[in-house]
Amino acid sequence: MERKKTWNIIFIFLAIVTILSSLFHYAIVNLYPSRIYIGGLMWCPAIATIITLKLIKRPISSLNWNWGNWKYIRLSYFIPALYGLITYILIWVFGFGSLTNGEEITEWGKELGLIGIGTLNPTSIGIIAIILLGTIEVIRAVATTLGEEIGWRGFFIFELKKVLSFTGVSVFSGIIWASWHWPLIVYYGENVILELTTFYVVIVSMSFIMTYYTFKSKSLWPAVIFHAVSNVYIQKILPELTIKNEGTEHWLGENGIMFAIVTCVFGIYFWRKAIKEKL
Length: 279
Prior knowledge:
The protein is mainly α. The chain has eleven helices and two strands.
């Protein structure tokens, strides 16, 4: 009886997420991929969670709002930065992309308004830009990743935990999370089949890591930080430090083959770690 009740709650949540998200998916695909629409889309899981909690007469305070152990907050910054760096080091080493030159970093500096400040050279500009993006931009990104993580890790996986094992929670939530993005991949992707495949591998792999830290900390905040840091490093920092080589584009970026391989290795590690710890 309890299992059936839990699955009904999960179904209600997913139905509300789908209805709300479809409005923003339509706006992003058919109107304009504005930050407003993307931000709205990322808050749909949180809104769906609030509505679901109201329907089942459970307080919003029942979510895992506590900050948790600082250890997991630190690791949730370090791990996505690490797998992003490993991804791009491998890209540079194998020649799928080249480490950017001084001219490219100068252009990057212009976008951040760093040109003309004292006698900054390209190396200094690059370091300052990485520090700013790795701190201020991560804080800004938290405003949107919080919307997703209130839903996916704050509510969804804790409901799934009542009826599934750690492996089941990670795989099921990962597939749902990846599927939630599919309209954007299909519409904006250049090699849709490849990008969908690598994206699912990345998201399910991330799901294992984020589920691990969420259950260990009993808090949604490590997932919020992890998601924000991953987005910033893999979308805004490391691509800017890389020159694309012709014919190897499918190895680069968040939908690239290399990122899928690296995150998969990390995902397997955390899956085995969780099983060993009987999580």
